[in-house]
Structures
1.
Amino acid sequence: MSVVAVFDIGKTNVKLFAATGSGTILEELSAPNRVQDGPPYRHHDLDALEGWLLDGLADLGRRHPIEAIVACSHGSGGVLVGPDVAAMPMIDYEQDPPPDITADYAGMAGSFRDRGSAVMLGSAHLARQMLWLERGWPDAFARATAFLALPQYWAFRLCGVAASEVTSLAAQSHLWSGADGRPTPLVARRGWEHLLPPMRPAFETLGTLKPELARRCGLPPGTRVVCGIHDSSANFYRYQAAGLSDLTVISTGTWIVALTDRTGVDLDTETPGLSCNADVFGRPVPGILTMGGREFAAVADGADGPATLEALRRCVASRTVVLPSFGADDGLFPGTSRRGRIHGPLAGDPSVRFTLALLYAALLASQCLQALPASRTVVLDGGLVRDPLFGAIMAALNPTVRVLVDRDPHGTATGAALLATHEARRGLAPLAAEAPDVYGLPDLLPYWSHWRDLTHPGARAS
């Protein structure tokens, strides 16, 4: 059995998985993704991370016959590179650029259709990172040969081939319009075309592991290096590889992220939470995101789960509701930041707090669904589905669609591993997802209608 090594780069932690070609996780290594304060700015230590990666590949390679390597990452990491190495340190995307960069960028970022996301804080967009590097270090910028999104940077370091990739660039980089499948006008205006290498599919083998790295890791010289993918797109791909379509995926973590393969979204008009990513085939993937995980945590306030049917019935019968938003971000409700509160007779009852938080998160997730075209199937995954009532509540709130729950905690790594077998796969990838049990739940639609009256008067649950 050949094995795929998946390098999953998160903002806080990095993970290295050994997985089968069908996506089954065999082993996992992890480490903090540390940043250094500077100079020249807060940045990730790529040299240390590369050492960890190579040591991890050697470690996993002693127990598993690794045949391919693929990286996946969040969408706000990029590296300016020269012929062989990074030309500048990788900017920590939570680092604020100088005020003049922030101000100038706001005026040049373009339309929402071009951007595919809101203009976010810090250095979240690769285009804003490039502007900062171009202005602050013009000599290094002029000598650079490419600017690579993070999955493709690691592929470049492993095999020496520079590539661009559509899911990575369509994820809030502001360098690629997912809606139109082309570079944004900003790229041409800044003369950055030469820094974006040719576009290659996420599942394409770019080359083989450099001989010196293969020797260091003890891996076969023919070990393939796959182009790589954005993390949410990798998770979405795992369901596409299982044969699902007419599909919306709702992933729950710090963010609640809803992505759909349905068309019909107005991508010319910016609305709260709206985004437009791409799938591995370059097709637009509209989405809605909100910081639902942090909202859940603020309401739960340390209360232990699991949620209970008794507490759910009490909350619904008393019409005790949670109103947004507790965090500094308005989320889906403009003007609500830091105005979140619990309203109703059980507002001070600690015995219902965890269940109320879970119900609130399900309402937020359902609100995301309402903002997208209706799909035949909705798949739920991520941290909140560990509580059985989350899926059940979602099914009760959305009775006209098929709701499935996938409790596999490694969706991103599974999807990335499946890329390595994309071109050779002859059947559907396995998927263990199940319909939630809604037995005994109260009627939640009047409760949802009441919540919507309070959060945005005049709206109604469909």
2.
Amino acid sequence: MLNHKTVLITGGTGSFGKQFIQTILERYQDVKKIIIYSRDELKQFEIRQKYPVNAFPQLRFFIGDVRDRNRMIQACEGVDVIIHAAAIKQVDTAEYNPTECIRTNIDGAENVIQAALHCGVRDVVALSTDKACAPINLYGATKLASDKLFAAANNIRGSKDIRFSVVRYGNVMGSRGSVIPFFMSKKKEGILPITHEEMTRFNISLQDGVNMVMYALQHHLGGEIFIPKIPSYKILDIAHAIAPECEIQVVGIRPGEKLHEEMITDTDSLHTIDLGRYYAILPSVSYTYTEDEYVKHHKAVKVPFGFKYNSYTNTEWETIEGLRKLIVEHVDPNFTV
């Protein structure tokens, strides 16, 4: 799928980007180029130490910001595939710095789209979040706007052979700023701060997130929002899995935070199909394909009327013991209780 192609990853020095690079190098020995596009020169330097140029000549490093359309166009010259992972992601940071979040997450998305159209890119997959579903915070609202931009981009491609799609998933296990590394760092203090005892979240590993992007690249028609079928966990179970001896301190929900997350609302379900391993929300406005054509292409079925996908009403749950095994596998191989 990616052999003899040039792949650009915006935000390529983040948790997802690093896992995606590793996966491409393991699976596609003949990938032409992998362009890591990000603002952080130190993180790019660190990746270069892991993948020295004499052993990995296919890697390229572009310093740039998705807010800069001209730089995006330069970076996309000759690119076949774009994975758009760059974003301002911290909910409370976005609440305090709304304009900066809008410029990166919305204006940046539009710049990626225009650069892809300008340079003849073939496939574009953008990363989204469960917070974009019925958003109550600015971060989620900007990602919803971004999702709409990428879905609608298929309607302005004209005669160009290009497909834009989105993948949306929940909390990535062990990613920077997520709850598991936070609790592990707090364990030695003997107190774990919990926002709310009833809080739930969806759970996905970094590799499963990467695999989902690969699936989207291989199967998308354009305009779909792909959503994985994944388990939920309770925040209290995470705390008990990591540090059962610690005192729990309830500190209250942070600005813009939800008690439970959603990925498909009952209204979304009117345009949602079941692909087996994943769901896909189809574009509400499409001049490219009909709903029947999407269903036929994906060999899918429509979800039942009134279906919704919520971390609280989910039918699949992580257990405390299961979470401990996942932490060893995906976060810290030396973890013990």
3.
Amino acid sequence: MKIAIIGTRGIPNYYGGFEQFAEYLAKGLVQRGHDTTVYNSHLHPYQKSEWNGVKLVHCQDPEDKWGTVGQFVYDLNCILDSRKKSFDIILQLGYTSSTIWGWLLPRKNCVVTTNMDGLEWSRSKYSKPVQWFLRQAEYLATVFSDHWISDSIGIQDYLKKKYNIPSTYIPYGAHPFNSPDENDLKPYDVEKYGYNMLVARFEPENNIDTILEGAAAASVKTPFLVIGKHATKYGEYLKDKFKSHPHIRFIGGVYDINVLNNLRYYSNLYFHGHSVGGTNPSLLEAMASQALICANQNLFNSAILEKDAFYFSTVEDVKITIDKIRREDHSHFVQNNFAKIQKIYEWNNIIDQYEDHFKLISKSSAQRKNEILQHNPSGRLPD
């Protein structure tokens, strides 16, 4: 099959979750014999036209000059280019700025399927007008796509109840981490199992403030590593708020996956505060890195972790967890979550599910085409 992936800034990943997902999926599809294209921003650091067998199309992206408006222009450019190609499948990742152009997606002999992501409109970082727009964009994704993918059971249930559309449940994936190396801890001046940590974007809905208030209030003052790009207004607020607590260390982004895996592996507790969206990639990576997890109590996290984690809702919950929980006493949580990665969320399993989904919707599209031709001998198909 000839497959295109749109809706990201491009691969290899230099940005975030969808880009990482597109990187793994595209590479896996090529290895399975599919002609796979990923649309990249012309601003992407990687400027070649191919990566590990994946074709790359760089489209003009004025986001650096126009800000958010530039994202809409970039998405338009990607969709217009896709109309010139003969793709069998277009996988659209998310809907934040692309679905207003959904009516332009190629239809003749091409099937569009959309990964609906999380409930973007519920993110507190967005103003009321932006939240309103994202609700409309979500609706348009249900109109201009032929099929839909949910990365969590919660999102699948939401789409069924809200829009009465059936979606295919396929979560994100992770690679099991089996090669720990203590040497990666040295630059951070921590000892194995002697620190706690979190990894997150600095956004209010990730509950970083709540977690750090709990860490500040805890009697145990072991180092707490805060990993994520903190050069933001919210990041500056947090750094100033907790500057009198030297055990809380703002590390910044860690982009070497092996280093990040080792930090998670050797932590005492890994806090996952994400409260919006579906199956979060960083949660699966923490499970794959054999971390002991304390997660925000919500449907999305508990659907993945089940009973194999600690949960928090308040500052007091975090404080008690830090003061009382030691990793060595709960190795069964770690082992159970690692087994889930191996059996359910390992990347090869996820890529197989996407390939099966593409085959199924391609077959249903061919059947629909035959039905149209039977009723329309001229052979003309609607665009």
